[in-house]
Design a protein that fits this description.
Layout (H helix, E strand, L loop, with lengths): L6 E4 L5 E2 L15 E4 L31 E2 L4 H6 L4 E2 L3 E6 L5 H12 L5 E5 L4 H10 L7 E5 L3 H8 L7 E5 L16 H18 L2 E6 L12 H5 L2 E6 L6 E9 L7 E7 L2 E4 L3 H5 L10 E8 L2 E13 L7 E4 L3 H15 L6 E7 L11 H13 L7 E3 L2 E2 L5 E2 L4 H10 L4 E4 L3 H4 L2 H7 L4 E4 L3 H8 L6 H11 L1
Parallel strand pairs: 6-10, 6-11, 7-8, 7-9, 9-10, 15-19, 17-18, 19-22, 22-23
Antiparallel strand pairs: 1-2, 1-3, 4-5, 11-12, 12-13, 13-14, 15-16, 16-18, 20-21
Helix pairs in contact: 4-5, 8-9, 9-13
């Protein structure tokens, strides 16, 4: 029988090669290719033997809803789709120190009263975990602790008739399989460790929660296949300078994706925020130029957030474009449309854009609010403080309709806003009076083209003459 050829795998991206090389052709990293033990394609003569026939069934049939474990932390349960599902694998990623371990310790402490919970740490000792639990006031919770990194030992501990219902592995990058020669945290170790733990969780019916480190680009470290193996992927986001933390669902086989949960970091741990819109707008100052309130939707939840812009004369040959909490490519597109379609030029000016509160916005419906903040900052004329803005901008300057308009307006009306600048959707085409009657207490102003928004705020005066005048004066 021919010997299986050796396989060389890049420990940075997971690409495999038939021979060793100093530089990975897939990701360009140096000295990351390591030889891995070959895996037989047909172990124990599997290719020659006949397998069992697999039963094929139809789509019709009654399948009971999967049982869920409700933690009682509403924001966490919302993101998970209503609670943790028995036998599922959940991956939680986030920056170092953002609060992943704190959140999961609070979750298992809440669940410990109804289901057995185990917290296995590969980064901290048992005394360190106990110290955090004491600081959070959770020392009385019936949570089983362990400090281990060998997957073989964990499988032997959990492969029993009555395993814990919830098992937290903190973190998957510290786990290792002793049959592999590579170090913990490499592609092969992360993939093999996760596969063994997920297979055991589905066979025994308990929920395994894996904590994943992230790279400097913000993605979960290790092979991309790790996110395909699990049932749910959650990212814990937030700025170090803000007390708010956002738990965002990227993938969920048992619930909606793009759902968010909002938490506030305090001395007593993470506290859920039931009404994030009121919190994000708590320190907003009305009638200030360069600010617009965006009515967005994250998953099934409407969120109102303030978008701030600052336009200042630049002394650089290439003016700066700084963005915090939004997409820099969308900002570049909005600036180009304003200049090409509306005659509003930002040349010679530094542009700064910020989403207040530490929330990151990826929704195209924020284009109109970004444009309103930019024009307001350049013209030094404030957007009316009681107005919310939302809509997608096309390259022609037209404003495209967005989904869930009623949900956005309902949230805005609940927080005391009385006017809205929105795309000319089906509601607005019926007439302004009928639209306003359909939304009691709100005046809806449809914006068909970006020029209408610029005219409503006021066209900014040219700053180039003023700058040249200053230079001539000094000359």
């Amino acid at each position: 029988m021919a010997r299986a050829a050796a396989q060389y795998v890049c420990q940075s991206c997971g690409a495999s090669f038939p021979k060793w090389a100093g530089r990975c052709e897939a990701c360009g990293e140096w000295n990351t290719i390591v030889e891995e033990a070959p895996v037989d394609a047909t172990p124990k003569g599997l290719g020659a033997a006949k397998g069992r026939r697999v039963q094929l069934v139809g789509l019709t049939g009654a399948t009971p809803a999967p049982p869920r474990q409700i933690s009682g932390i509403g924001e966490f349960d919302r993101v998970c789709g209503g609670g943790l599902v028995a036998g599922c694998a959940l991956l939680v990623g986030g920056d170092p120190g953002i609060g992943k371990s704190t959140l999961l310790l609070q979750v298992v402490a809440r669940l410990a009263g109804t289901v057995g919970c185990a917290y296995i740490s590969g980064e901290e000792s048992i005394d360190q975990v106990r110290l955090r639990a004491r600081r959070l006031g959770l020392e009385g919770a019936d949570v089983r602790l362990a400090s281990a990194t060998n997957v073989r030992d964990l499988v032997a501990t959990l492969d029993v008739d009555h395993p814990p219902g919830i098992v937290v592995i903190d973190s998957i990058q510290t786990m290792y399989v002793d049959t592999l020669d590579s170090a913990p945290g490499t592609v092969a170790q992360v993939r093999t460790s996760a596969e063994g733990l997920i297979r055991l969780a589905k066979r025994r019916g308990f929920c395994v929660v894996l904590v994943g480190h992230v790279t400097k680009e913000g993605t979960i470290a290790g092979p991309r296949v790790l996110e395909h193996m699990v049932d749910t992927v959650l990212y814990f986001e937030g700025e170090r300078g803000h007390q708010f933390r956002i738990l965002r669902a990227i993938k969920n086989r048992f619930g909606p994706t793009d759902e968010i949960g909002v938490f506030e970091m305090t001395d007593a741990g993470l506290i859920e925020v039931a009404n994030p819109s009121a919190l994000f707008l708590a320190e907003r100052q009305g009638n200030v130029s360069g600010a617009a309130v965006f009515a967005g939707v994250e998953g099934s939840r409407p969120v109102l957030v303030e978008i701030q812009a600052l336009v200042a004369p630049s002394s650089l040959a290439t003016p700066r474009r700084a963005v915090v909490g939004s997409d820099s490519a969308r900002l570049a597109m909005v600036l180009a449309v304003l200049e090409a379609r509306c005659g509003v030029s930002f040349a010679g000016n530094d542009v700064y854009l910020n989403v207040a509160g530490g929330l990151r916005i990826t929704e195209p419906a924020a284009d109109l609010a970004v444009a309103a903040a930019l024009v307001s900052a350049l013209a030094d004329r404030p957007v009316p403080g009681e107005t919310v803005v939302f809509g997608e901008i096309g390259l022609s300057g037209g404003i495209r309709s967005v989904g869930q308009t009623d949900l956005r307006l309902k949230e805005a009306r609940k927080l005391g806003f009385s006017a809205a600048l929105l795309p000319p959707g089906r509601r607005a085409r019926k007439g302004k009076e009928k639209s306003a009657a359909a939304e009691p207490g709100m005046t809806l102003s449809p914006i068909a083209h970006l020029r209408d928004l610029v005219d409503s705020i006021g066209r900014p005066a040219s700053r180039s003459a003023g700058r040249s005048g200053v230079r001539m004066e000094h000359a």
